[in-house]
Amino acid sequence: MFRLAYVPGVIPGKWVRIWNERLPDIPLTLTPVAAGEAADTLRAGGADAGFLRLPVDRTDLSAIPLYTETTVVVVPKDHLVAAADEVSVADLADDIVLHPLDDTLDWEGRLPGRPANERPATTADAVELVAAGIGLLVVPQSLARLHHRKDLTYRPVSGAPESRVALSWPEERTTDLVEEFIGIVRGRTVNSSRGRRPAPAQEQQASKAKSGRSDAGGARRKPAAGKPTGKNSRGGGTGGAKSGRRGKPGRRS
């Protein structure tokens, strides 16, 4: 069994599908985790690998950055921002911008807009407050899609920090199955030299085929000593020395 953790907003479906096609005998189980708990879940052995959001302490975790998300602001459909194709952080200065406790963006102390009286516990709670007209919310685009509502929309925000998604796993537990999943995520083909090792029986067959010793390979055998290697109409071996030498005809007296 291979256990894969993933944070909200990440959709691992395409990689899971490839896994099931290549390794149908090894089930893959999905474990949803909160963004702030993903690294600790991997360290505690709760999953073999996981999709999380950077940054992450790489002292004991390996990580392969996969992609960077667009940052958007979630607003009611009748808000002025909805009329623009894109806004900047400065455009949000007069609005209340909610900052949930599970925020995945690293603002480095420069939060946009005006702060709310309280911080929502989760992004989902913040979305509900946006729908109630309490304020706006800046999040990675995948989270805006995850919490989509018909009465809300979102627009890209320039000048805001971006969220990077990575595949991570405990460095000391880089197993063959972890390597297999890394190959899938990186787009290696099933015949890649860094893919899964063949079974012992397959290795033996490959070795025999390479050395030319396979019973079904039709390998040539050296001729036995003393036996001719080809036919000759004069009885000698092909390419061999002639049996006699013609002399010059004698003179007639």
Structural overview:
The chain has six helices and ten strands. The chain has 253 residues and is an alpha/beta fold. The strands form two sheets. The chain has a five-stranded mixed β-sheet. It has a five-stranded mixed β-sheet with strand order 6-9-5-8-7. Helix 3 (123-131) links the parallel strand 7 (97-98) and strand 8. The longest helix has 12 residues, at 200-211. The chain starts with a strand and ends in a 42-residue tail after the last helix.
Helix-residue proportion: 10-25%
Got a strand count?
10
The stretches of 5 or more residues where confidence is low (pLDDT under 50) are 197-204, 213-223, 229-253
> What integer value in Å does the Rg equal?
35 Å
Report how far apart the termini are. Answer: 105 Å
Report the mean per-residue pLDDT as an integer: 84
Assembly annotation = single chain
Strand count, sense and barrel status of the largest sheet are: 5 strands, mixed
Measured by DSSP, the beta-strand proportion falls in 15-25%
Strands of the widest sheet, in order across it, are: 2-1-3-10-4
| Secondary-structure-derived class | alpha/beta
